[in-house]
Write a structure and sequence with these properties.
Chain B: It comes from Pseudodesulfovibrio sediminis. The complex is a heterodimer of chains A (391) and B (351). Chain A has 391 residues and is mainly alpha-helical. Chain A is 72% helix and 0% strand. Mean pLDDT of chain A is 91; it is low at 1-9. Classes of the chains: A mainly alpha (391), B mainly alpha (351). The interface between A and B is large, with 65 and 71 residues.
């Protein structure tokens, strides 16, 4: 198998993917220099009315939501005892770890003084702030995810003793992961509860933390399907029989769960709408966009998932997963940018600059490259031969 | 030291987050500090001369503006506070003609910025000002997201030490016993400085004395939980660019629910998940036990059956053997007796 790997890599040096990735990395490096020599103003379209742009809306909000596969999969496998999903845990944990690490990396661009990022934790705790909760959870959860990831690393390095110790911690780590994810996913939504005057009523709700948490489960389940689909072709030679045999079963199981959770999410969103009595906004322009989000990106994928599961049609499920992932991005964009500052005249609204888009692409590219580097070397899609049949 | 901070912070994640907030969330209200100072702005007196802007610029040693402060043409465009301008006067065309309104930090009693800041860079001083400590600011700009009055501004063009900039209520001058720069310079007494509780009385007196001149509302008395700067006006506040839909809930009240959920999640989730784990594990164990028992049962049953079969077969074989022996014996007897008693043999066969 190792022969296989090197053969593929030698071939792939000048692939279209590598060429595009290189261009993005160079562009990212240039913007990085501009950002840290000229300040935020030099590369972003942020202004006094719009302090948060796509570096928060995409890199942070979407990054965290789409990394939810880590806690959903490990909870399904270890807490709920669904052992057949075991082969999906490692790819999901790796994705979550990289996702969170990249969120922290991207934050270094967005905050004014990144060298002070540990100040809230170690210098002065602003415990009344929801952003403090976000920061604390990211810090702790990143640590938990790293420890959850280390067995793959230790197996690769042949460090059996310490690997076995970490494996014994699996359940405790999984529960900590779920606790931290619950808090952290929901606190991202809760960040906006402080600004009822700025966020459009259709998106503002006291239930924002709940909405964010429940939708993160949809995101997690869908991301596992979506990403399994993406990595299936390029990583196929690395996947062992267990992974491949369980793949379709996993897609069916996760698809069924996603259908139900999306339906539940739709229901609580309607309850939120009814609680605040915001029905009359549905006839406005924002209302139309809200309906697109709710019907096209929540109800439709829930329905597609249900059909796919009933007919055992993997293709439909995969499309539903892609739609849900896109829907999560739409939702987080709506809350952090589209419906935020809705009262401002259009001339004062935010639109991302090329510099911001470049950095976001840069961050995603780094993520894909690191994921490829790790999963082609460490036992992610297959079990290490020394540790088979252990669970 | 570091370790202690860290341990403290772990505790803070659970219990202490709930404490200061739940005190507020619990509906206990203590009102503003009695020493809280403030400023009352009277829109019927402001003539848009921009002297307050000039004073602010000088007192805070801010960079010179693009257009001079005596150039009143800037009033024709809508402006907001920014990193170089901590106060701004705008002109509004209202039902009663042109009205001018000054804006700056309102120094809320329960400031959104202070409650939102994750390093406590903002602090409501008991005598009024909401102070800002640039030495801990990380530059996350959540204060700007949180502020309902859109006041904090950021030094976006500063690469290394960007700060959040906003009116300080001239806290250093207050400490020296002086008036805030803008109040001191205002030629029309549109700005009145004093204890907040006195300002409310003054405002109410003016409204009562001239009911035709004023709208019956003191903006800032209750908005967002109350502010140190307050406004009275002759036209509805929405006509001079002030939002009337902010409500009376302070920013900490808005986020109290979400924060109060933290210790609940920390406490409940491990219990629930541990329970689910125990149940699923128990289910597995029972299923496994049942499987083992069923296999054992099946094995014994199969064994018994096999034995029975064997026994049956053996006994069948016995009978068959016996019969065969009998037949053989009979045959032998017949053969022996055949030549002698042929008649008797036929008789036997028939029976």
């Amino acid at each position: 198998m190792s022969v296989d790997t090197t053969a593929v890599e030698k071939k792939s040096l000048f692939t279209p993917f590598n060429i595009i990735a290189t261009i993005i990395l160079i562009a990212g490096a240039i913007v990085t220099v501009m950002r840290f020599t000229g300040g935020l103003g030099a590369v972003t379209n942020l202004d006094q009315n719009n302090p948060w742009g796509i570096w928060i809306g995409f890199d942070l909000m979407c990054g965290v939501a789409l990394a939810a596969g880590g806690y959903t999969t490990s909870a399904a496998c270890y807490v709920f005892g669904l052992k057949k999903y075991h082969s999906a845990v490692r790819p999901a944990i790796l994705t979550a770890f990289l996702g969170y690490a990249l969120v922290v990396f991207a934050l270094h661009y967005d905050v004014g003084q990144p060298w002070r990022l540990t100040y809230p934790l170690f210098v002065q705790n602003g415990t009344t702030s929801l952003l403090f909760e976000v920061g604390l959870c990211v810090f702790l959860y990143l640590t938990v995810l790293f420890i959850e990831f280390t067995p793959a690393l230790f197996e690769w390095l042949g460090m059996t003793k310490i690997r076995n110790i970490v494996v014994k911690l699996t359940l405790a780590l999984t529960i900590m992961g779920v606790v931290l994810s619950t808090l952290h996913q929901s606190s991202l939504g809760a960040l906006f509860t402080i600004a009822p005057s700025k966020l459009h009523p259709l998106w503002y709700s006291q239930y924002l933390p709940v909405f964010f948490f429940v939708s993160s489960i949809c995101a997690g389940l869908s991301m596992v399907i979506f990403e399994g689909t993406l990595s299936h072709k390029p990583m196929h030679h690395l996947m062992d029989e267990e992974y491949l045999n369980n793949h379709d079963g996993l897609i069916l199981g996760f698809g069924k769960a996603a259908s139900l959770v999306l339906f539940g999410y739709f229901s609580i969103k309607v309850i939120g709408l009814a609680y605040d009595n915001n029905w009359h906004y549905l006839t406005t322009g924002y209302g139309a966009w809200y309906l697109v989000e709710m019907l096209g990106f929540v109800a439709l994928p829930s329905f597609l998932y249900a059909i796919g599961v009933r007919d055992k049609n993997i293709t439909v499920i995969k499309w539903a997963a892609g739609l849900t992932v896109l829907g999560i991005i739409v939702n987080r964009f709506n809350i952090s940018m589209v419906a935020f500052n809705y009262q401002l005249p259009s001339a004062e609204r935010y639109w991302p600059s090329w510099g911001e888009i470049t950095i976001s692409l840069f961050v995603v590219t780094i993520g894909v490259l690191v994921f490829r580097f790790i999963s082609t070397r460490m036992p992610i899609f297959h079990e290490h031969p020394d540790y088979k049949e252990e669970h | 030291m570091l370790r202690r901070t860290f341990l403290g912070l772990l505790g803070a994640a659970g219990a202490s987050v709930a404490l200061p907030v739940s005190a507020k969330a619990g509906g206990k209200s203590f009102g503003p500090h009695p020493d809280t100072l403030g400023v009352l702005f009277d829109a019927t007196r402001c003539i848009g001369c921009r002297k307050c802007e000039l004073a602010c610029n000088e007192v805070n040693e801010l960079p010179a503006p693009d257009k001079k402060f005596d150039d009143l043409s800037v009033l024709d465009t809508k402006r907001r506070t920014d990193e170089k301008t901590l106060t701004v006067v705008n002109k509004y065309e209202s039902s009663k003609g042109s009205v001018f309104r000054k804006m700056q930090c309102n120094h809320c009693l329960e400031p959104a910025c202070a409650s939102a800041c994750f390093v406590k860079a903002f602090k409501k001083e008991h005598n009024g000002p909401v102070s800002y400590d640039a030495s801990v600011c990380v530059g996350c700009r959540y204060c700007m997201v949180a502020c309902p009055f859109e006041i904090p501004a950021y030094e976006y063009d500063e690469p290394l030490t960007p700060r959040v900039m906003k009116c300080t209520m001239c806290a250093p001058r207050l400490a020296e016993g002086k008036l805030p720069g803008c109040v001191e310079r205002c030629p029309k007494e549109a700005l009145t400085f004093g204890l907040r509780k006195d300002l409310i009385k003054i405002a109410r007196a003016r409204i009562t004395t001239y009911p035709d001149r004023y709208v019956d509302h003191i903006y800032g008395e209750t908005e967002m939980g109350g502010t140190s700067w307050m406004y009275i006006s002759g036209v509805p506040f929405s006509e001079i660019g002030m939002r009337e839909d902010l409500g009376t809930k302070s920013a900490p009240e808005l986020t109290a629910g979400a924060l109060a959920a933290v210790p609940i999640v920390v406490g409940m989730w491990p219990v629930l998940l541990g329970g689910i784990y125990a149940v699923s594990k128990r289910k597995d164990k029972i299923a496994n036990d049942e499987r083992v028992a069923a296999v054992k049962d099946a094995l014994t049953r199969a064994g018994e059956e096999a034995e029975k079969k064997l026994h049956d077969e053996l006994s069948k074989a016995d009978v068959a053997n016996q019969r065969r022996i009998e037949v053989e014996v009979k045959k032998a007897v017949e053969e022996a007796l055949a030549p002698k008693e042929e008649e008797a043999e036929t008789n036997e066969e028939e029976s």
